[in-house]
Design goal:
Elements (H helix, E strand, L loop, with lengths): L5 H5 L1 H7 L3 H17 L27
Length: about 60
């Protein structure tokens, strides 16, 4: 019986991710957030214009730019 490798199952990139320990994944995720924020990303939620509670008069950081 042939064993299926992780690379065959999920691809090389995901297999590398799954081979990390939870702490290593946490550190790598933190690096990704730093890059996201340095490229202008925001942690502010996007307004949900479909919501019945959406109020165009309420300021948010997106509309203040």
């Amino acid at each position: 019986m042939k064993m299926i490798s992780a690379e065959e199952l999920v691809g090389e990139e995901l297999a590398d991710w799954y081979s990390l320990t939870p702490m290593e994944r946490w550190r790598e995720s933190a690096k990704l957030w730093e890059v996201f924020l340095s490229l202008g990303g925001s942690l502010d939620p996007e307004p949900d214009t479909q919501s019945p509670f959406f109020d165009r008069e309420t300021p948010n950081s997106i509309s203040q730019i």
